Amino acid sequence: MKSNTPLLDKITHYIVKRKGKQIRPMFVFLSARLHGEVMESTYNAASLIELLHTATLVHDDVVDDSYERRGFFSLNALWKNKIAVLVGDFLLSKGLLLAVDNGEFELLRIVTNAVREMSEGELLQIEKTRKLNIDESIYFEIIRQKTATLIAACCASGAQSVGMDKETVIKMRDFGEKVGVAFQIKDDLFDYGSDTGIGKPTGIDIKEKKMTLPLIYAINNASSSQRRKIVNTVKNHHDNPDKVQEIIDYVLTSGGIEYATQKMHEYVKEALEILHSFAQNESRDSLEQLVLYTVNRNK
Description:
The chain is mostly helical.
């Protein structure tokens, strides 16, 4: 991460000191260990994932006008948008160069394809949010691209890094995609404070006019008048706390939470079925625990 530009060194130091849970690199290492011994290529894969993921987070904060990330000020809050965008570009280029300099072209293909899909998913969400015409199939396509595709890339690149065949790499990708969908549904549920330990509902997704699975279910099962009322509130009164609370209350009583939770567990079950098709070892057990953590976490 070292650079000849002092400002860049200062900012990258700030990023590294405030790293998150690093779940994605864990998926890379455990997917590699499931099939063989961790190699230099595995470290390259994990670093590539973390660099590109961090770059997308920095750019997301600029796009969303977000001034907080993981409980700390975001880069754009401290150094403004122009510098934040350039730092995101720097991180992106470091990841690409890491792969090219080490001849990791297949890893580069896997991860770059994920970044492309993430961009498409974000744009699809923006397009659909404008009209609030998101049905369940579109919702799952958005979260598959926005969230699941990167976890899928982690698992695929972990297997690729230890020289596994194409069929196994694809299988690991499918495993990661299902985990990623479950992970995002869990994030949706946080908005409603529905699980023990989560606390009060936040309604942040509603305030940002994001159509999540509990809300989509509630709308689909509402009367036509109730549906118009909810859509109107999300469109025009999303910054009114009382109106947002009304939607939260409606979702909580409509069965939306139970439906989303059921869907989340279906994806977890499918992911574990794929995982259990591989021989049992310590890394398989750890991956299973990591999958269960993603749906049982309280933040």
